[in-house]
Automatic annotation (TrEMBL):
It comes from Cellulomonas carbonis T26. Residues 33-381 form the Aminotransferase class I/classII large domain. The keyword Membrane does not apply. This is Aminotransferase. It is an enzyme of class 2 (transferase). GO terms for molecular function: pyridoxal phosphate binding; transaminase activity. The keyword Transferase applies.
Length: 392
C-alpha cells in the first residue's frame, strides 16, 4: 500500500464525516433546500467583521503582507480580553496565533504529547480522533453522561492509563450544547492530579473553547484553566463571528503553569509552528484582532431561534438536549436511526447532521445558524418525518 499508515488511520477515523460531507453535494444547485448541517452563515457577514477587515486592507508599509508569525498587537488584545473574561492573569507571551481552533488543537497535541501517547477525548465530540491518528497518537473515548451529556468525570478517570498525556474538555460542547460547571471541572482537576502523581507523568488538559462566548440564559463560564494549572486553551473566532472560512484562532498557555515549564513551552511554540508548515493566521486577520474582540453574532436572535425550535420540536414529541451554549440543537432521532431520519428529511429538502458523525447513531444535530425563515420551512418536515418514524 502506497498510502502511509497514519493517513489510512486518519481516513478511517474521519470516514463518517467525509462520507456525509460528500453526500451534501447533492444539494448543489437545488432550489429551496434547507441546510441545517454545519455552522455556516446563511446571511451577509457581520458589518463589524467587514469594517475590521476593510480598515486593515490598505497596506501601511512594504512588509504589510510579508511573512507573519504571532503579531504583538493581536497577542496583547487577546491577553487583555482573557484577563477580563476569565479573570486569569494571561500575558501576551502566553498567546500563540493559529489558523482557527483546529490549528491550535494540532499545535497543542504536538507541543506536549509524543507518538504513541494516549489522548482522552469526549464522546460524542468533534474531530479530535482523526487529528490524533494523523499524528500517530491514540484517541481514547470517554463517554459523556448518556442522559444529560454532562461531563462524566468517572468515565474520564476510567479512560486514563499510564500512557495518557492529554485529556480534552469541550465546553460549551459541540454537539450537545452543554456548559460544564466549576464544581465538575474541579472534580476532573483532582482526577488529573491523582493520575499525574500515580503515573509519574503530567497529564495535561486541553480546553477546547471555540464557543465560549456563545451562551444562553445568562449561564456563566468557567475555563478549566481556572481550576487546573496544567491547561492549554484553544479558541476560534470563526464561531462568534460566524465566519469559519476566515481562519483565525489561538492557543493560550494557562498563566498558572509553573514558570519554568511555561517558559519552555513559550519558547517551543514558534519553531514547532514553523515545523508544522507555518501555521499562523493570515496577516489581515491578525491585524483585525483588536477590533474583532468586540464583534459578535446576535445572541438575542440566536436565543429566539433556539427557543422556537426547542418548543416546536418538543411539542412534536422530540427528546432534546436544550443547549446552554453553541449554536446547535442536539436531539434523539425519532425511531432511533439517525441515518434513516436524515435521509427521510433530505427527501423533503431538509438536511440535518446525523449523529453517526459523532459516533452516536441514535441522535442528530441541527445548526441554528440557519435563518429564521429556513427554520420555519424545516419545521413541517421535521414534525411530519418525526411522527412517521415514531408510528413506523
Amino acid at each position: 500500500m502506497e498510502l502511509s499508515e497514519r493517513a489510512h488511520a486518519a481516513d478511517q477515523a474521519i470516514e463518517p464525516v467525509t462520507s456525509f460531507f460528500l453526500s451534501l453535494r447533492a444539494m448543489d444547485g437545488q432550489d429551496g433546500v434547507v441546510d441545517l448541517t454545519f455552522g455556516d452563515p446563511h446571511e451577509m457577514p457581520l458589518p463589524g467583521l467587514v469594517t475590521a477587515l476593510r480598515d486593515v486592507l490598505e497596506p501601511r508599509g512594504t512588509d504589510w503582507f510579508a511573512y507573519k508569525s504571532s503579531l504583538a498587537p493581536a497577542q496583547e488584545a487577546i491577553a487583555a480580553g482573557l484577563r477580563d473574561e476569565l479573570g486569569l492573569p494571561f500575558e501576551p507571551a502566553d498567546i500563540t496565533m493559529t489558523q482557527g481552533a483546529f490549528g491550535a488543537i494540532a499545535l497543542a497535541f504536538r507541543l506536549v504529547a509524543d507518538v504513541g501517547d494516549e489522548v482522552v477525548i469526549p464522546a460524542p465530540g468533534w474531530f479530535y480522533a482523526p487529528m490524533l491518528r494523523a499524528a500517530d497518537m491514540v484517541p481514547i473515548k470517554a463517554s459523556l453522561d448518556p442522559e444529560t451529556f454532562d461531563l462524566d468525570v468517572d468515565a474520564v478517570a476510567r479512560a486514563i492509563t499510564p500512557r495518557t498525556r492529554v485529556v480534552v474538555v469541550n465546553s460549551p460542547a459541540n454537539p450537545t450544547g452543554r456548559v460544564y460547571g466549576r464544581d465538575r471541572l474541579a472534580e476532573l482537576a483532582a482526577v488529573l492530579e491523582d493520575a499525574s502523581a500515580r503515573n509519574g507523568r503530567r497529564v495535561w488538559l486541553l480546553s477546547d473553547e471555540p464557543y465560549r462566548r456563545i451562551r444562553f440564559d445568562g449561564i456563566g463560564f468557567t475555563s478549566p484553566a481556572a481550576v487546573y494549572p496544567w491547561t492549554l486553551v484553544d479558541y476560534s473566532y470563526g464561531k462568534v463571528l460566524l465566519a469559519p472560512g476566515q481562519r483565525l484562532g489561538y492557543l493560550a498557555l494557562s498563566p498558572s503553569v509553573p514558570d519554568t515549564v511555561r517558559d519552555e513551552l513559550r519558547a517551543a511554540m514558534l519553531p514547532l509552528q514553523l515545523a508544522l508548515g507555518w501555521g499562523f493566521p493570515d496577516a489581515l486577520m491578525q491585524y483585525a484582532v483588536p477590533a474583532l474582540e468586540t464583534v459578535s453574532i446576535d445572541l438575542d436572535e440566536l436565543t429566539r431561534r433556539r427557543d422556537r425550535m426547542v418548543g416546536a420540536l418538543a411539542d412534536a414529541g422530540y427528546a432534546l438536549t436544550v443547549p446552554e451554549g453553541t449554536f446547535y440543537l442536539w436531539g434523539a432521532a425519532p425511531g432511533g436511526d439517525a441515518v434513516g431520519f436524515a435521509a427521510a428529511l433530505a427527501e423533503r429538502g431538509v438536511y440535518v447532521l446525523p449523529g453517526t458523525v459523532f459516533d452516536r447513531a441514535g441522535h442528530f444535530r441541527i445548526s441554528l445558524t440557519a435563518t429564521s425563515a429556513m427554520l420555519e420551512r424545516a419545521l413541517p418536515a421535521l414534525v411530519e418525518v418525526g411522527a412517521g418514524l415514531v408510528r413506523g
